[in-house]
Amino acid sequence: MLHYWDDKDLFPNGIQRCFWITQVSLGEFRGQHAHREEVQVLVCLSGQLKITVEGIDGSSNEFTLDHPGKGLLVPPLNWVKVSFGGGGVLLGLSDRSFDESDYIRLWDDFKKLQRLYRE
Question: What is the pTM of this model?
Answer without folding.
Answer: 0.93
